[in-house]
Amino acid sequence: MPPAIENPYEERQTLLLERIIKNVDLLNEALMEMNRSFADINNHNQDITIVAEMWNGYHRNVDFNLQNMESNNTASNHHAM
To answer: Gene Ontology cellular component (predicted)?
Structure first.
């Protein structure tokens, strides 16, 4: 059986793999922190979303009532003639 041929680059490859693994771990931690930050931002923005939905409902009601007032005024002006 011939002796095993050693890879002259094995040590360098091992060091590079260790660096890659360490950097991927750091990246994963950073992404998890970013996800937590996004969740916090979404929680804070939820109140703003609720107010915006309420405002849109108020705006639709005002528009509806103004249109009805205009229609009623036009109708009553025609009846008054």
So the answer is: DASH complex; microtubule; mitotic spindle
**What type of residue is 36?**
R
Backbone angles phi, psi at 9, to 5 degrees: -100, 5
Tokens of 65: 């009532």
∠ CA 38-44-48, rounded to 5°: 125
Residue type, 51: V
pLDDT in tens, 24-49: 999 999 999 999 999 999 999 998 99
DSSP type of residue 8: T
Question: Any residues with CB less than 8 A from the CB of 13 and at least 6 apart, and which?
Answer: 7
- Tell me the whole-structure pTM to 2 decimals: 0.53
